Amino acid sequence: MRAKCIFSSITSTRAHISITTSNTKLFDKGNQQFPHTYIVPVEPNRATRHNTTAEEKAQRRSFFGFGGGSTSGNDIASVDKEDLQQQQQQVELSKSSSVTTMTSNSLNTTENKSSLTTNATSRSSIEADDLRTQERERLLEKYTNYDRVILEQRKNRPKLKLDDFHLLRTLGTGSFGRVHLSQSRHNGRYYAIKVLKKAEVVRLKQVEHTNSEKAILESAANPFMVNLWGTFQDDINLFMVMDFVPGGELFSILRKNQRFPDHVAKFYAAEVLLAIEYLHSKHIIYRDLKPENLLLDSQGHIKITDFGFAKHVPDITWTLCGTPDYLAPEVIQSKGYGMAVDWWSLGILIFEMLAGHPPFYDDDHLKLYEKILQGKIKWPAYFDPHAKDLLKRLLTPDLSRRYGNLKGGADDIKNHKWFSGVDFVRVSNRQVRSPYVPTIRGEGDASHFDRYPETSEKYGIPGPDPYREKFSEF
């Protein structure tokens, strides 16, 4: 099984390391599962489906575009014409001129009322459409301007230092450091502080990756990415102050439930798609998409973390890095590659969420790479046909056919039938309720993360610092 920790070691050997995962106890609080959706069992005798409330069904409709029809002005006019025809037939059968006159007057009145009703309905429909259009434009503008607003806020922040924080429990560990839950001494907010030992970063030849991670996080901001609020260093360590995302890893939720129903996988895939699209708009390749690197916030929305392999690439790069199960064929073949590798990884992620395992797997990495290059996938019978079609278009080695890498870009994926009915404007503004909302007892609740042995790390101790020039931007 793959390594599982929120603090993935940014080492060049990570692509060749497989670490047995620990059993994460995320559901000790009443053994809760998705409270707002169905969990489809892997075996027929497993957990039964949950009932959904009217509110939950309505929320699902808003996500998938299910909704009742409305009566248009033309429909009303059509009904009125049928009534008029019946009344006209009655007039022709009548021999009384007075009755004919009265009926004629009645018809004129009915026609006038019908016309007024139709016009009023049409105006109301147009006004409602205008309001919806204005609201969508407002939401789209809000999402588009998100990074500008956040980046502007970062400009005027004071330089952070170790004394600004209380360092609390460990959230995760890696090859050359750990992540601490921390609380600001000034505003009381909780943060995750990633601590890297300079000597280990240098020894493992990760200076460039570390500096690149800092630069990318400082230049980017998106609702579906962790925010970097500041960095600093002492003579021994580097410190990166980031959002504390309390819901834990998507990996833990997926393993607990073995696989996700179609609409649950679709929800997470939609949010990840928007994050990748945003990064690509800034010429950034992520290169390490997997459930372990997807954290859930207090409302159950995605936050991509661990940008150790992310890179600003205007054209192509050749570095072999990533997680073996998620490597695209062009990476394995040591060909120059570009942003299309992230769309391949999105296909692997969707498959793993739907099936409970990646499409290509082998304990022997060389055999795994052979399977990826052969491209033969065993499709589970329960896969939605549209999901299967999309995955075939993402998991193709032919870059001239891979969705996301074509002229339409990410829109080709958004417009695919599997995403039919998904309102990406509402998704971008986190207005679609998550199928799983983690139970958070309060700010600073880290119960959704594993416990790690606490060590008496001495931070801020003066000493020789032969590497300061290598990390001058910290």
TrEMBL record:
Residues 420-474 form the AGC-kinase C-terminal domain. One of its GO terms (molecular function) is ATP binding. The keyword Nucleotide-binding applies. GO terms for cellular component: cAMP-dependent protein kinase complex; cytosol; nucleus. Its EC number is 2.7.11.11. Residues 165-419 form the Protein kinase domain. It catalyses: L-seryl-[protein] + ATP = O-phospho-L-seryl-[protein] + ADP + H(+); L-threonyl-[protein] + ATP = O-phospho-L-threonyl-[protein] + ADP + H(+). It comes from the Eukaryota. It holds the Pfam family Pkinase. Residues 91-131, 444-466 are annotated as: Disordered. Residues 99-125 have a biased composition (Polar residues). ATP binds at K194. Keywords: ATP-binding, Kinase, Nucleotide-binding, Serine/threonine-protein kinase, Transferase. PANTHER family: CAMP-DEPENDENT PROTEIN KINASE CATALYTIC SUBUNIT 1, CYCLIC NUCLEOTIDE-DEPENDENT PROTEIN KINASE. This is cAMP-dependent protein kinase. It comes from Parasitella parasitica.
